[in-house]
Design a protein that fits this description.
By secondary structure, the chain is an alpha+beta fold. 33% of the residues lie in helices and 13% in strands.
């Protein structure tokens, strides 16, 4: 597979046996050559290097036009890599137009250089054809003439570049049918006829057919012609029969395929997803496809496993994850190896893509590399554990990376604006990451909402809210890795050793590992001596071969193996520097993952300003202008592109010659092979007359670009004022470079250069003529202080210029003459701007306290350059310590031994004790002061003070970890441990058993932290006294008591008497003890949940429980909930216990009425038959009016029943139907029964005169309320139902059962409504509860109840007064049939 320049050969010449031409032929040739030499009209123009008949290759792309005029019609597009033939040379003024003919015999005019000066064509072969007129060819014109597909023909063999997407039809919106990876071979079967002119129908190696684009949206070519074909396939005759599941997940499977199960799959009986489940396929198992499903989902196939069992499975999951991966059976003979894309295979280090077929020059940095060999044997190595037979079949490739790097994936985020370029973005990412064999099988998509897709299953028209969509590429573990190659070599090397040599090798490897880890030369010498004595194979006499070296030496932490050109290297995982182990000092180069090659590494040695280039053991110098110099020969061998940082190499030339030509105004270029036939040096003079381009000048000037001056006529480029004005007009930081487009005279002009320097001091490199001009340098440094470095020696020694430069920028102090660095004025000005300037001061000024203090005030780090006298100055050091304690490292030794100074230092920062010397580390007062400032100072105290209780206690009070710095004896001090555990109780977990087993210590600590019982020893957790002490403070601490203690009946009796909740931690046997359970239930009825089922099934026990709390019926078994006697006892205690009674008892009228007498809310648990019965509900509302709440909807709309309920309680109206409370006649009847019913009227009736009159009439029948009646009426307003609302608002986190428990507890002491609760709170509510044997409320609950009760009582009293006032006002309303007045809006009712 060769194309392009690989197919081209040098023209043959007939020679005699002695290798020379005949004499007559030589003579004739010379005469002919002399006759042909005539001056051309385009001499000196870009087109002068082309001749008619030359074969050229397109570089980057070009536009073909009908005539030589740039404004003529466009007739075609030439892509990168196309070959054309020159048929005519242009004669226009631009001198860059030629006529060419492509491989389709289409002729057009093109430009040989772009507007930027870059060449668009390179000559491949010189020709001798004579010019011929541009006439139409006899070949029939194609339908896609001038389009991108015109270079392709049916039958052409092409190779995919980067990846391409296959679709069902030529339409770009058609369904996706597959993905072509980089390097795949396809055959053109049909040429598209659409308007885009870039669609082809191709057929891959599996005979899958689809339509692809020949170029991407960015203009990059996607298909490269490998071999031209003659087979003509057109129309439908070339189409493969379309499958029924085309475009669905099952389309990639064929009957007979072997598949690997990935993650497991469910096997069902039929194709339907709801059919019976047979089994689950284990992960990594192998199945065979025996049938393809025809369902609408397109993801069901029938398989057969290794046990010949069949069933239907899905090939993908609901979230798009692949469940079955097809594994094609190996062919009888492997296909011939194909070469990867040249751009992705490391062929050589230089950038030029071609080389002359015969040349005697040597490229120093070039390393010969054979063509890559791909793995084609079916018995490939799969890992280090492969058998010897498999290893013998494997051919080592040219490049192999480690498994971690080959398996490394990436994430690609696609925004909304790039939704149409997903495939192109993914292909570019694959190329940039160096993925040689990309596959969509390892790509998953996730949208912004978190939903996952497989490729091809995402929505056809995704909405913006789904973006950004993230693509996750996670390839599997590769079969070929550098570890595999290393394992092969190690196995072959070990097989060649004798048993005695193998034993010696193990000892040698052990010694080598220790020698390199400890940098011990003696161990290294021993290892080599032993290797020689054992006659182990040596690598050129230098040491063991890499296959016998220990992995710890060859691949230390952070390195990975790399196989390159038959050699195993060690590559750093992060920097990707490649080393030849065990030498890790000088790299071989840097790994280029995109091109899969080792490129030269650019390094900068420490202490040097020049960069170096290292490549396979050879070190080159990199000069400022980008010249690569061989230090051994002192020759320039290449250049580095400043923009792309790519290397270009050429014939070596002496360094002196290159410097001489550069100084004389010449520029040295190294064109790549894309522009020339081979690498060479091209040193061209700056010809200013050839730079003008009027057309481009006008175009760039209209765009407002300053670069228009580059293509302007000489008259404009020589105008000094114009150049200066353009430099001032631009706003960019690099605008001064406009000067470079001027003529030589302008570039050397004083005013022009000065203006450039004012913008950027780098322009001083072009002002060499003014380096000794004092006036010029003064103006330059006043604008840019860094320009001072370019001054002559006399200039840099001038004090006035030096001060002016430093005043502008302190960096200029680096270039001041040595004698001026002792000037206090200059140094003070530099230090005032930056403390780092102190480094360049003279030794005398470094001892100047004012200057050093000025620097230290900015940063304590300036102390490193202070003189010894000031490093011993207390005030200077203390000022620095206020910024950071690290400033103490620059303190003089006598200061660190001064007690007074150290006392002041540790007051500023406790860690200053770290720098104390001598007896100060034993000074108790000093260490104690340091520890008060920072507990970490304890670690720097002496052994004696780290055992001092007072010192350690001071540190432990700040942080518990300070105890780890104390002595072993102090760490066992119980007082110190107690103080540390107070800050963090789990500190006791690491304390010795002598502390955790001390009863007095643990008794003291559980009073502070009851849950610390868990850290006591097993023996102490069984101590009854300690457990009860913890229980008094937190009932949950009982869970940490020993199992024996929680199984002790006497102890658990005491525990439940202290807190009933401890029953949940009791032993299972004790949870069945009636006495203990009754004791707990009496205090907290919910504890029945922890009682054994056997005890709860005991009628006597449950009778006792419901006598305490009726809601205990909740935990009774179904058999006891039917017990009428038990339910009656429960209802006498709590009416709402009806909820847990059996259904037949909930339908018993007498049982329900008994519950209603206790609590009207119990009516809600009555059976629907009773709540729909009028007679029963009439009896229920006769007991409590609000029992209407449980009536059916029909009965709530019955006027008679509702009025009967109102007679008991006017609040029953809130449960009546809306139709009744909106009826004027009904509300009048209700108000006549109880005037307070007016408050339940709907909004439209609230101020109705008739309702107000009825309320007044009802009030007239009664005497006005006496004080006792008023109190009774107020109590009626504040009912017991509002008591629960107050409890609920006081404790919002209480559930219904807790609210009921609180109401029952209050009912025991006579608190049944808000009025009685208000009176109890005014007294001692908790005292009454304690006297009645009830559990008291917390202080927070009491405080909340007082606040909520006061607010509710105030609101209720206000509402009652407003209602009475409204009734009184209504009594004064006329009762005659006269026209009623407008109601008073101020009335509340």
């Amino acid at each position: 597979m060769q194309s392009g320049f690989l197919n081209r050969q040098a023209p043959k010449t007939d020679l005699h046996k002695n290798g020379q031409r005949p004499a007559d032929e030589v003579t004739l040739g010379r005469r002919a050559d002399r006759a042909a030499i005539k001056p051309r009209s385009d001499a000196g123009q870009p087109s002068a290097r082309f001749s008619i008949g030359d074969t050229c290759e397109v570089v980057g792309g070009a536009v073909m036009r009908a005539t030589e005029d740039l404004n003529s019609d466009k007739v075609g597009q030439l892509l990168d890599g196309f070959q054309v033939e020159v048929v005519e040379i242009g004669s226009g003024p631009t001198g860059k137009r030629i006529a060419v003919k492509n491989d389709q015999n289409v002729t057009g005019w093109v430009s040989v250089v772009a507007g930027t000066g870059e060449a668009l064509f390179r000559i491949v072969q010189k020709g001798h054809k004579q010019a011929s007129p541009m006439v139409a060819t006899s070949k029939a014109a194609r339908a896609d003439h001038g389009k991108l597909t015109s270079r392709y023909e049916v039958g052409d063999q092409c190779e995919v570049i980067g990846g391409a997407l296959m679709r069902l039809t030529e339409d770009l919106d058609s369904a996706k049918v597959g993905q072509l990876a980089h390097g795949d071979r396809v055959e053109v079967v049909e040429i598209g006829c659409g308007p885009s002119g870039k669609r082809l129908a191709v057929k891959d190696e599996q005979n899958e057919r689809g339509w692809v684009s020949v170029i991407a949206g960015s203009g990059e070519s996607l298909l490269r012609i490998v071999q031209k074909g003659q087979k003509q396939v057109t129309g439908e005759s070339s189409k493969k029969p379309t499958r029924a599941d085309q475009g669905k997940p099952t389309s990639r499977y064929e009957i007979g395929d072997l598949c690997d199960v990935m993650g497991g799959a469910i096997v069902r009986e039929t194709e339907e997803l709801d059919s019976a489940q047979l089994r689950r396929l284990p992960d990594r198992s192998e199945v065979k496809v025996i049938e393809i499903g025809t369902g609408w989902s397109g993801k069901r196939i029938r398989i057969q496993d290794s046990n010949d069992r069949t069933g239907w499975v899905s090939v993908v999951s609901a979230d798009g994850t692949q469940l079955l991966r097809p594994v094609k059976p190996p062919a009888p003979e492997p296909p011939p190896a194909r070469l990867p894309e040249p751009s992705l295979v490391p062929q050589r280090i230089p950038i030029p893509e071609t080389e002359p077929e015969s040349t005697s020059m040597k490229v120093p940095l070039q390393r010969p590399e054979p063509p890559p060999t791909l793995l084609t044997s079916p018995g490939a190595v799969t890992g280090p554990g492969a058998t010897g037979q498999e290893l013998a079949k494997w051919n080592e490739p040219f490049v192999l990376v480690s498994a971690s790097r080959a398996q490394k994936g990436f994430d690609l985020e696609v925004p909304w604006l790039e939704r149409d370029n997903v495939d192109q973005l993914l292909a570019e990412k694959w190329i940039s990451q160096g993925v040689l064999e990309p596959s969509y099988d390892y790509v998953k998509l996730r949208d912004a909402k978190g939903k996952w897709y497989r490729p091809g299953e995402a929505p056809e028209n995704p909405t913006p809210e789904l973006f950004p969509i993230t693509l996750y590429y996670r390839p599997p573990k590769p079969e070929q890795t550098a570890e595999t190659a290393l394992a092969l070599r190690q196995k072959q090397a070990l097989d060649a050793l004798t048993p005695t040599q193998r034993r010696s090798l193990a000892e040698v490897q052990r010694l080598l590992t220790q020698a390199y880890s400890n940098e011990d030369g003696y161990l290294l010498e021993r290892a080599m001596r032993l290797a020689h004595e054992s006659r182990l194979p040596m690598d050129g006499g230098q040491g063991l071969p890499i296959s016998l070296m220990p992995d710890a030496v060859m691949f230390p932490a952070g390195n990975e193996p790399l196989l390159y050109d038959g050699q195993v290297y060690s590559m750093h995982s992060e920097s990707m520097l490649v080393f030849d182990p065990p030498d890790f000092q000088t790299p071989m180069g840097v790994w280029n993952p995109r091109c899969q090659r080792v490129d030269p590494a650019m390094l900068k040695p420490p202490g040097s300003e020049d960069s170096e280039i290292v490549h396979f053991g050879k070190t080159y110098k990199l000069l400022e202008m980008g010249h690569v110099v061989d230090p051994d020969t002192e020759q320039v061998v290449g250049m580095v592109d400043s923009m792309s940082q790519q290397f270009e190499f050429f014939d070596p030339i002496p360094l002196a010659v290159a410097e001489f030509m550069t100084k004389r105004g010449f520029r040295m270029e190294a064109p790549s092979a894309a522009l020339t036939n081979g690498p060479f040096v091209q040193i061209l003079p700056e010809d200013e007359t050839q730079q003008s381009n009027p057309e481009l000048h006008m175009q760039m000037q209209s765009m407002g670009s300053n670069k228009a001056l580059r293509y302007a006529p000489v008259e404009q480029r020589s105008n000094k004022d114009l150049v200066i004005s353009m430099m001032k007009a631009g706003g960019g930081v690099q605008n001064w470079k406009v000067m470079l487009y001027g003529t030589e005279e302008v570039r050397c002009d004083r005013d022009v250069v000065l203006e450039a320097v004012k913008q950027d001091y780098m322009a001083m490199s072009y002002a060499s003529a003014f380096y000794d001009d004092k006036d010029f340098m003064l103006k330059a440094v006043q604008a840019q202080g860094s320009a001072f470095q370019y001054g002559a020696e006399a200039i840099r020694a001038d004090p006035d210029l030096a001060y002016a430069a430093v005043k502008t920028s302190w960096v200029a102090i680096k270039h001041v003459a040595e004698k001026l660095r002792g000037s206090s004025k200059i140094i003070r000005e530099a230090v005032r701007q930056c403390w780092q300037a102190l480094e360049y001061a003279s030794e005398d000024l470094k001892d100047d306290k004012d200057i050093v203090s000025l620097a230290v005030k900015q940063s304590w780090r300036a102390l490193q350059w202070a003189g010894p006298r000031l490093q011993a100055d207390k005030q200077v050091l203390l000022n620095a310590v206020t910024q950071s304690v690290d400033a103490m490292q620059y303190a003089a030794e006598q200061l660190c031994a001064d007690q007074e100074f150290m006392q002041q230092a540790v007051r500023l920062h406790g860690l200053a004790i770290k720098f104390a010397v001598g007896a100060l580390v034993d000074d108790r007062d000093l260490v104690l002061e340091a520890v008060r400032q920072d507990w970490r100072a304890l670690q720097y105290a002496s052994e004696l003070l780290r055992g001092d209780r007072a010192v350690v206690l001071e540190a432990v009070r700040q942080h518990q970890d300070a105890l780890s710095f104390a002595t072993e004896q102090a760490r066992e001090d119980k007082e110190l441990i107690f103080e540390a555990a107070r800050r963090r109780p789990d500190f006791l977990r690491v304390c010795p058993d002598s502390v955790r087993g001390d009863l007095d210590f643990m008794m003291r600590f559980v009073k502070f932290q009851p849950m610390a019982l868990q850290f006591a020893t097993d023996e102490l957790r069984g101590n009854e006294e300690l457990a009860l002490e913890a229980l008094r403070r937190n009932w949950r601490s009982l869970q940490h008591a020993s199992r024996d203690l929680r199984a002790c009946r006497a102890f658990m009796m005491k525990a439940v008497q202290m807190d009933a909740l401890t029953l949940s931690f009791a032993d299972e046997e004790l949870q069945s003890d009636p006495e203990i359970v009754c004791e707990a239930v009496e205090r907290e009825w919910e504890m029945l949940a922890h009682v054994s089922e056997e005890l709860r099934s005991n009628p006597a026990f449950m009778m006792e429980a419901v006598s305490f709390e009726g809601l205990c019926l909740k935990y009774a078994p179904e058999s006891l909930r039917c017990d009428r006697e038990l339910v009656l006892v429960a209802l006498q205690n709590c009416g709402q216990a009806l909820e847990f009674a059996a259904e037949e008892l909930q339908a018993d009228p007498e049982i329900v009425l008994m519950a209603v007498r206790q609590d009207f809310e119990a009516i809600t648990y009555a059976s629907p038959e009773l709540t729909s019965n009028f007679l029963f509900m009439f009896r229920a509302v006769g007991i409590h009016g609000e029992a209407l709440k449980g009536a059916s909807l029909e009965l709530r709309a019955d006027p008679e029943l509702v009025l009967a309920a109102v007679a008991q309680s006017w609040r029953a109206l809130k449960h009546a139907s809306r139709a009744l409370t909106s009826s004027r006649d009904f509300m009048i009847r209700a108000i006549r029964i109880d005037p307070y019913a007016l408050s339940m009227a709907r909004d439209k009736l609230f101020m109705d005169p008739k309702l107000l009159a009825a309320a007044a009439e009802a009030q007239n029948r009664e005497t006005f309320a006496t004080p006792s009646d008023s109190s009774s009426r107020r109590d009626n307003v504040v009912s017991d139902s509002e008591l629960r609302s107050v409890l609920k608002s006081a404790r919002p986190n209480w559930n219904e059962s807790e609210l009921e428990s609180a109401e029952q507890k209050l009912a025991v002491i006579g608190v049944v409504n808000l009025a009685s609760l208000d009176q109890a709170l005014a007294g001692n509510l908790n005292g009454q509860l304690r006297a009645a044997g009830q559990k008291i409320f917390t202080a927070t609950t009491i405080m909340e109840l007082k606040a909520r009760t006061a607010a509710a009582m105030s609101a209720a009293a206000s509402a009652a007064e407003d209602a009475a006032r409204a009734i009184c006002v209504a009594a004064k309303q006329p009762t005659s049939k006269a026209r009623p007045r407008k109601p008073n809006a101020r009335l509340t009712y």
